[in-house]
Write a structure and sequence with these properties.
The chain is mainly β and about 110 residues long. It has one domain (about 10-110). The protein has one helix and seven strands, in the order αβββββββ. The chain has a four-stranded antiparallel sheet with strand order 6-4-3-7. A hairpin with a 2-residue loop joins strand 1 and strand 2 (about 30-35). The longest helix is centred in the first third of the chain and has 9 residues, at about 10-20. The model is unreliable at about 1-30 (pLDDT under 50).
Length: about 110
């Protein structure tokens, strides 16, 4: 798999902030299904989807994101249509844990 770096663009920021994440327990760990409504944006989105997790409700997970902050997991999406689902699961790359299955057991807050 080729590793690509992309710059964070305005649509990517909108993508990160406006999505709602729903967690469902899967055999291999957590799974987040992320989508957006056509009322939020009618055009497809391309970028990197980040899911930030925290064991505390405050600050918001996205506000604590840094090299020493909360765990985050990412997948690239291309031309994600309104209503379509992007999945962030154990295949997503993360930091500081490479995979979601490496997260310590516990309760986590996801950015909504």
């Amino acid at each position: 798999m080729k590793n690509r770096m992309r710059s964070l663009t305005a649509p990517s920021v909108v993508f990160l902030v406006l999505f709602s994440a729903q967690a469902a327990v899967a055999q291999s760990g957590a799974r987040f299904e992320v989508s957006f409504a056509a009322a939020v944006r009618s055009q497809p989105l391309t970028g990197r989807l980040l899911v930030a997790l925290s064991s505390r409700p405050a600050p918001e997970p996205r506000m604590a994101f840094s090299f020493t902050g909360v765990p985050a997991f990412a997948v690239d999406v291309e031309q994600l249509q309104p209503g379509a689902v992007a999945v962030v699961d154990d295949k997503a790359l993360g930091y500081p844990f490479m995979r979601m299955k490496d997260l310590p057991p516990g309760d986590y807050f996801a950015q909504r």
